[in-house]
Amino acid sequence: MPGPLTPSITVDGSEIAEAAWFTREQLHQACLDGGVRLPPEISIARKLIEAWYGHELPGGWSRR
User: Fold this and answer.
1) Which of 10, 56, 61, 62 is 20 to 30 A from 16 (CA-CA)?
2) Could you tell me if 34 and 62 are in contact, meaning their C-beta atoms sit under 8 angstroms apart?
3) What is the pTM of this model?
4) What are the domain boundaries of the chain?
């Protein structure tokens, strides 16, 4: 839930279906428990996320 220092996120519902803010610890746990599916390892998006995180993250992305 956004707080005074956390801006809300607005998505277009087409190109981006959902979005959320995570701390590094929250993101790591969400990757482990399947709460978040990351983009493929070859993608620029994945490289940007892992650069912010500091190293590789567990988990992956797949279409269902």
Assistant:
1) 56
2) no
3) 0.71
4) 22-64
